[in-house]
Amino acid sequence: MSVNLTRLAVTILAASFFIPAAARAFDLAYPLADPLHTEPAELREGVVLPGDREPVPCAVRQDFSRPLALGEAVDLALCNNPQIKASWADIRVQAGALGEARAAYLPTLNGALSRTNDRIHYSDSRYLSTSQDSNTAQATLDWRLFDFGARAANRKAAEDLLAAALATHQATLQRALTGVVQAYFDAISGRAAVEAKREGEEIARETLRSAQKRELKGVGTQSDTLQAATALAKAQLDKNRAQGDYQKALAVLAYILAVPDNTIILLPEERDEDIHDQALALGQWLNEAQRKHPAVLAARKQLAAAQQRVTATRAAGLPNLSFSTSFYQNTRPGEAVTSTDATETTFGLSISVPLFDGFTQTYKLRGAQAQVEQKRANLSDTEHQIAMEVIKAHADATSALHNLEAAANLLFAAQEALTVTKRKYDKAAADIMQLLSVQAALADARQERIRSLADWRSARLRLMSSAGQLGRSAIGEQ
Asked: What separation in angstroms does the CA of 416 have from each of 235, 433, 436?
């Protein structure tokens, strides 16, 4: 192999290794993955929810032998949700697209080496057979210098789509938070219903015993005993139904958490609390949602990317200027190998001017402009949907807050009424129907108090999620 060919081979091989290595050297954390720095920090550090300082931990195994706190349920759901994983992968896809857009600014270098042995054998002995070894090499560098902003528009569109993917991931997290919070408090309310029905069953059983004793003593009637037995049977039926609803709520919670089907989920005891100074300004929530909600931000970035595509499409129909240089050793592509060593070097500037493409560019531009209108309509629809969700969540939270005090008053009145009615019944001053009615009212009041508290906590968190402001720190306060 000739000295020139050897030098060219070394140059091409060195370029194939050292040019990408030089680009990758700027990123020590990922020296082989992201030479153009397109991956956002969230891919390395994780996405942090509003109000939090750290991303969601996903490496810790959950101990289901103890009650599952709401914060732990949230961590499980966020780490196992397939929609979150899909939106996370979409961020990587858009980061790759941004890398392609940035790479369009760089030159491309291609090289080829070959060695050919050409042996000719003649059947006529008067001609000597020949054998020739030939070495060939080609190297070409192409670099687009100017294109009326097509590359810039494509890069900005890719950056907007990457930002939209990040915002979409945040919006997916907020939806997942809403789902797990709703399922968790549905299970809490379901267990409260079971406990209330169980207490109602015990009270009905005590009432039946009291009615039987009164009948034996001749103070009560058989009708009272039968009515008490009927009330006990109904209380048992209500308890069984409540138990079924509770198991269904646990199954939904387990599905959202993506845990094995045979997992036994224990819930902590519901605690009572005093609610005070809970500001619920609807206008403020709506403003925050329109300004910060990730779904709205994603729609805005998608609109901006569509507008950049219009610019890129329009620029694609304009001239562009490119620079190219080539080096050939012994031959050009598609030509016969020369019998003697020869080298050739070319330099050139080329202007590409689109003249007529059958109106293809015209319809591409119309399609890009239509996508802008579509994305603008999607933005308006997203803003409307978010506003409606905030309004509904605000109404639920306000109603739940008002119901807390009413439920507390109802429970206190029902407890006092049962005490008074039992005293009257023991003294034969009240009949069995009055006692059964008061007992049922007390069971319902206990259930309403716990359910109202769970509804308030759930509605408050759903309001924050509807506004796109829910984080693990706020959930940890529950």
From this structure: 21, 17, 14
